[in-house]
Amino acid sequence: MAMSPALFRRLINLYPPFLGAGVWVSHIAGDWSEMTVNLRLRFYNRNYVGTHYGGNLFTMTDPFHMLMLVQRLGSAYRVWDQKAEITFVKPGKGTVRAEMHVDQAQIDAIVAATAGGEKHFAQFEVVILDESDEVVATVLKTLYVRRKPAT
C-alpha cells in the first residue's frame, strides 16, 4: 500500500498502542530510507523503578523496518517480521530515540538474494539512545523477505 511518509507519520502517531506507550514518530525520510522514533518518559509509561518500561523500548522499534522495506521494495515482495532480540544496556530516563535506516546497498542485497524467489532473512540493528547519546538498548531485527511468484 503506497502512502506518503508525511501522511503515514500523522496516522501512526494516532495509533492507540503507540499513543498509550508514548511512542512518537518524529521523522520519516521522503524515500522511506530512515525513520526517527522518540519515547518521552511519562508517569503512565514508566516502570516500578521510574525508568522506561522495556516493552515500550521494544515497541519503538517493532514495525518500522518492515514498513520501510514494504514501501521501498513495493508490492512484488512479501515482508514480515521474523524475530527480534533486545539487549538492555542501561536504564532509560528522559526522552529516548531510535533512528532506523535502510540504505540502498541493503535494498540491492535483498533484491539480489531474492531474485530467484528464494526467501531471505535481512537483519537490521537499531540503537536506542538517551538525551546524552548514550546507548540504552540495542535491538536486532530479522525480517523475512521473499519475492512474490509472478502471476
What does this structure look like?
This protein has helices spanning 5-12, 16-21, 54-59, 64-73, 104-113, and strands at residues 23-28, 34-40, 77-88, 95-101, 119-129, 135-147. The chain has 151 residues and is an alpha+beta fold. It has a single domain, classed as Hotdog Thioesterase (Thiol Ester Dehydrase, Chain A). The protein has a 6-stranded antiparallel β-sheet with strand order 1-2-4-5-6-3. A hairpin with a 5-residue loop joins strand 5 and strand 6.
Short description:
By secondary structure, the protein is α+β, with helices and mostly antiparallel strands.
Give structural attributes.
alpha+beta, 5 helices, 26% helix, Thiol Ester Dehydrase, Chain A, globular, 151 residues, 6-stranded antiparallel β-sheet
Instruction: Give the N-terminus to C-terminus distance in angstroms.
Output: 19 Å
Helix count, DSSP H or I runs of 4 or more residues: 5
The helix/strand series, from N terminus to C terminus, equals: HHEEHHEEHEE
Anisotropy-based shape: globular
How many distinct folded domains? 1
Radius of gyration: 16 Å
Total count of strands: 6
CATH architecture: Roll
Low-confidence region ranges: none
